[in-house]
């Protein structure tokens, strides 16, 4: 049975440097401690066939074999295998490169089977490869990080400065993505490459201006320019297809709205004051702005509804609504989540608690899902009005992250009051911010909450403190790095406090 080993290391160097230097096979003797020579035998398109020769091992034996390697720059992956297999029935290696906040995560996945005649068992080979991989990865990390620091010696300029320059172009890149989304370029290239003139005619764009945008997009992997001048889609661009179930088109539309771009232009105001930037940028809080600019408010509501339905099934797997008889969705919007819960729990009823202005618009959704007659619609304000006190499950989905701790406590205490002495459950559907320097979209959403709403995303320890102060305790271990479900049960208030925010 094949053996699979999986190792990863984080290299604090620019992606282009890590990719180019680790795919320069001829230079491997300077990257790996084990190789004395690397001889290129053949180039065939993107693939390279080469012979590696090791330094003598402790027994004085020199090993040599031929391998073949095919990099894919669009996906930042490499497929490789040994042609001369030596002690192996086969040996396949997949390299993966992933950009993270602190550098490039370089991953090697090795799959192999050992020949019956090999003097080394599969377990012994697994242990040997894991030990050697850790040594080689650590050395590669050291070499590449040194080369990044001394960029002028190994490439043009300071590569860390180049990466920072790339990051400062974020506003321009967002505009490029928005333009591609508005023009439908990903849809137009979904069936194969097209020329600029054809794309311009189909999208109603100026050919030269479109080419310049496409060229910029291709430089960061969103599109790819072919030698004949045509452009084709890439895996990144596929996420902008309108026919994809999890298309990012709604997010592209939302990010281009004036209330977002103008507020982020005043991010420094929020950093200095701790207050939303909307007052400085828009002249009012976000909700008043939506009242004065209903088109932006409608866009916000539509995108939030669309995105909120992406992971409904996974969240309901955690909630398991079939174990409850009456479910209240507090601040539940048009009722999509509650309707999905009631479809899984055919004997249950529901309560949708929303602002009075929203309630008249929820019936079409509930009727379309076949649960209208099972849902009591209640208009009210969860800060001032009592919540339904006859439910055995309460849901707060994407409510608390838009609130600072003080106001979030008011909502949680209102739910706790509604539960009273009953053994009901509270389900908080939110993000849990991961620790350390790892990539986490919640860290960007947290800035949205700061700049636009005055709320915050929270780490697990912050969730525990907040819930404990309001008479709840967690009964599950929610995941980090994505939307998740925090299941809570009534408990005594902890009285634990933290610095006020």
TrEMBL record:
Superkingdom of the organism of origin: Bacteria
InterPro entries: COMT-like, COMT_C, COMT_dimerisation, COQ10_START, SAM-dependent_MTases_sf, START-like_dom_sf, WH-like_DNA-bd_sf, WH_DNA-bd_sf
Alphabetized GO MF terms: methyltransferase activity
The keyword ATP-binding appears for this protein: no
Annotated ranges, domain Coenzyme Q-binding protein COQ10 START: 11-130
Segments forming domain O-methyltransferase C-terminal: 265-473
O-methyltransferase dimerisation domain segment(s): 167-240
One GO BP annotation of this record: methylation
Record key words, sorted: Methyltransferase, S-adenosyl-L-methionine, Transferase
Pfam families cross-referenced by the UniProt entry: Dimerisation, Methyltransf_2, Polyketide_cyc
Stored CDD domains: TcmN_ARO-CYC_like (cd08860)
PANTHER family: O-METHYLTRANSFERASE CICE, PUTATIVE (AFU_ORTHOLOGUE AFUA_4G14580)-RELATED
Full protein name: Methyltransferase
Protein species of origin: Actinomadura rugatobispora
């Amino acid at each position: 049975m094949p053996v699979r080993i999986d190792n990863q290391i984080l290299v604090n160097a620019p992606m282009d440097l890590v990719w180019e230097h680790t795919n320069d096979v001829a230079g491997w003797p300077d990257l790996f401690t084990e190789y004395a020579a690397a001889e290129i035998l053949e180039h065939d398109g993107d693939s390279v066939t080469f012979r590696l020769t090791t330094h003598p091992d402790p027994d004085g034996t020199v090993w040599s074999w031929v391998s073949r390697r095919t990099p894919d720059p669009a996906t930042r992956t490499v497929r490789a295998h040994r042609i001369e297999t030596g002690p192996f029935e086969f040996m396949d290696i997949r390299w993966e490169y992933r950009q993270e906040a602190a550098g490039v995560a370089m991953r090697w996945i090795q799959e192999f089977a050992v020949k019956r005649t090999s003097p080394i068992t599969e377990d012994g080979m697994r242990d040997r490869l894991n030990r050697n991989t850790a040594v080689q990865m650590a050395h590669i990390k050291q070499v590449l990080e040194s080369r990044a620091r001394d960029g002028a010696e190994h490439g043009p300029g300071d590569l860390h400065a180049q990466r920072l320059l790339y990051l400062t172009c974020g506003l321009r890149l967002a505009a490029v993505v928005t333009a591609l989304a508005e023009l439908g370029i990903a849809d137009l290239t979904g069936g194969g490459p097209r020329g600029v003139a054809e794309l311009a005619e189909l999208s109603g764009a100026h050919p030269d201006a479109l080419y310049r945008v496409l060229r910029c997009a291709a430089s960061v992997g969103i599109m790819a320019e072919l030698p004949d001048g045509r452009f084709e889609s890439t895996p990144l661009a596929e996420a902008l297809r309108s026919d994809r179930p999890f298309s990012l088109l709604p997010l592209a539309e939302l990010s281009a709205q004036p209330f977002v771009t103008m507020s982020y232009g005043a991010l420094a105001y929020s950093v200095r004051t701790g207050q939303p930037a909307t007052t400085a940028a828009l002249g009012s809080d976000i909700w008043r702005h939506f009242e004065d600019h209903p088109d932006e408010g409608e866009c916000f509501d539509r995108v939030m509804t669309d995105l909120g339905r992406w992971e409904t099934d996974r969240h309901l797997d955690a909630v398991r609504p079939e174990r409850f008889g009456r479910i209240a969705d507090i601040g539940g919007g048009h009722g999509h989540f509650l309707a999905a819960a009631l479809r899984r729990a055919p004997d249950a009823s529901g309560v949708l608690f929303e602002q009075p202005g929203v309630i008249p618009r929820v019936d079409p959704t509930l009727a379309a899902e076949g649960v209208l007659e099972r849902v009591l619609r209640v208009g009210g304000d969860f800060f001032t009005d009592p919540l339904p006190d006859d439910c055995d499950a309460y849901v707060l989905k994407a409510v608390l992250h838009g609130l600072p701790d003080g106001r979030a406590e008011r909502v949680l205490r209102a739910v706790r009051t509604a539960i009273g002495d009953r053994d009901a459950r509270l389900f908080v559907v939110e993000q849990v911010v991961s620790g350390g320097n790892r990539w986490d979209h919640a860290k960007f959403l947290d800035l949205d909450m700061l700049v636009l709403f005055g709320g915050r995303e929270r780490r697990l320890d912050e969730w525990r403190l907040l819930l404990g102060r309001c008479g709840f305790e967690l009964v599950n271990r929610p995941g980090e790095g994505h939307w998740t479900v925090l299941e809570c049960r009534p408990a005594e208030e902890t009285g634990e406090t933290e610095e006020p925010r």
